[in-house]
Amino acid sequence: MACELHSDAPFEIHDSKLQMDDGLKSELQKQGIYVVKLEELYNWGRKNSVWPLSFGLACCAIEMIAASMARWDLARFGAEVFRPSPRQADLMIVAGTVTKKMAPQVVRLYNQMPEPKYVIAMGACAISGGPFKQGYNVLKGIDRYIPVDVHIPGCPPRPEALLHAFMTLQKKIDEQKLTGPNRPRHLVADAPSEFPIPQFGEHDLVPPKNPNVWKPAVVVRG
């Protein structure tokens, strides 16, 4: 049953949800007392401990390496621990050109990462094939096979762009719900955690895309 207390009270109840007054919360924080919801604490811990997988594909990897050095200091975001094994990482930064020869390996590494896991497509090549899009040997975007959370345009994007992508991903993690229909994939029991690894066909990868992940844009012409 919905009800509301007096406006001077530190707590207000709306639609059976308890909310604390911001002024009271601020005063408690000055005394070292923090009042948060379990969802906020859970997301805070996850967003500040994103561990990227230590691998790069092309020139964008140089910018990724630079972002972890002292000048840009990726450690400020809790993401300085680049892991050598996909089983210890929860973020894949696809940094560079994804050739069709390399695509099955990228999907295989993604499948080996534990949930919850995220993907940043760094650079024009990882997003759409870049200047090699019309070539026979380059994949037109890694999002054809695995879900991508953040895209970074550029050829190559600067380290500042990668930092912005990290902040965008952190904001996305911070807004995730633990329950309800909009909860993330790793909290849905029947949601897929692994995706089909493409095979080398006679002329192209088989399948050429994962229809459950990538769907072509519908162009409506007037």
What this model shows, in words?
With 222 residues, this protein is of the alpha/beta class. Among the domains are: 25 residues, no CATH class; 127 residues, Rossmann fold (3-Layer(aba) Sandwich), CATH 3.40.50. Helix content is 26%, strand content 11%. The protein is built from six helices and seven strands, in the order E-E-H-H-H-E-H-E-H-E-H-E-E. The N terminus is likely disordered.
Question: Looking across the biggest beta sheet, what order are the strands in?
Answer: 3-4-5
The number of helical segments is 6
Give the termini distance in whole angstroms. Answer: 51 Å
Helix content: 25-40%
- By CATH, the topology of the domain at 50-176 is Rossmann fold
* Average pLDDT, all residues: 86
The CATH architecture of the domain at 50-176 can be named as: 3-Layer(aba) Sandwich
Please tally the β strands and state the result.
Answer: 7
What does the largest sheet look like? Answer: 3 strands, parallel
Low-pLDDT residue spans: 1-7, 9-16
Q: What is the CATH C-level name of the domain at 50-176?
A: Alpha Beta
Q: Tell me the structural class.
A: alpha/beta
Q: What spatial form do the alpha-carbon principal axes imply?
A: globular
Radius of gyration: 21 Å
Please identify the oligomeric state: single chain
Task: Summarize the helix and strand pattern as letters.
Answer: EEHHHEHEHEHEE
Amount of beta strand: 5-15%
